[in-house]
Amino acid sequence: MLALKGTAIKRKSPLQKEEALAGILFALPSLSGFALFFVIPFFMSLYYCFTEGIGGTRFVGFRNFESLLKSESFLLAAKNTLIFNAVAVPLIMVLSLGFAMLLNTGIKGLPFYRSCFILPLVVPVASVILVWQILFNEHGALSQLFQLFGLPAVDWINSQWSVAVLVLLYTWKNCGYNMVLFLAGLNSIPREYYEAARIDGAGFWTCFTRITLPFLAPTGFFVLVLSFVNSLKVFRESYQLAGNYPDMHIYMLQNFMNNNFTNLNYQRLSSAAFLMFAIISLMVLVLFRLESRLGRDLE
Q: Please, what sign has the CA dihedral across residues 13, 15, 18, 19?
């Protein structure tokens, strides 16, 4: 008897069934697009990772990954991507947090400065690249300035300085958004904590390490993941700035995969994409673990 009552309780009413059906119908266009453009290509790429050929494919196991790891162009692209992330992500974290703390001091004209920092996000990439080429081209404004002081002209985009130009571009374009996120996190910290700390004789560094950083940890983690993801999307700027085959210092994994797509080398492209996917997933997982551990320590 009790089992029958439990079964009766679990049954959905006709209204609940209609609502569930309506929800599925409304979500169906989005789910169809997700399956068409993400799920199906995902499994097709996974299939190409372990096969050889385009028309008549045959299973080759992990041979594509072995060939990829022996490729000099892939290793160069992986090294450059790692160097770029190791430099650009910490730099933008420090700069965005510094600007956020500066604006959080109650400076006048805060909305104006905030708009100035956000402005690079809404400027079209083509316009930004045009300005960067005018500045850093071999015959650009910066080289002309060097020649005024008797220094030789430098082709910044096609030399060892190209990675610095790309880091500067990435930082300039994304720093404002990260700054606004940090500013929101700083505004959520109660002012009373700082006032009590100053009464006890705490200085700026003590307040920063004992109050600001612990309370800003969740926001900082979100900004870190966002900065890391955005750093992997810098290919658009790199491609328009230096083309398919840029200087060897800014030849990224995205350049490698784009060139293999152009050459119809789907096996190598898919293998590189899945290897990159695995590394990104592992790094994000590590960041989540660190964030959860940090949250337990703060509690």
A: negative
CA atoms within 13 A on the CB side of 231: 28
* pLDDT by 10s per residue, the chain, length 299: 444 444 444 566 776 777 778 888 888 888 888 888 888 888 888 888 888 877 667 888 888 888 888 888 888 888 888 888 889 999 999 999 988 888 887 777 777 777 788 888 788 877 888 888 888 877 778 888 888 887 787 788 888 888 888 888 888 888 888 888 898 888 888 888 888 888 888 888 888 888 888 888 888 888 888 888 888 877 777 877 877 778 888 888 888 888 888 887 888 888 888 888 888 888 888 877 877 776 665 55
Q: Which of 52, 55, 56 is nearest to 64 (CA)?
A: 52
* Model pTM above 0.70: yes
Query: Quick one: which of 91, 269, 100 has its CA closest to 166?
Result: 91
Please, is 9 exposed, middle or buried when counting C-beta atoms within 10 Å of its C-beta (0-12, 13-18, 19+)? exposed
The CATH fold of domain 71-298: MetI-like fold (1.10.3720)
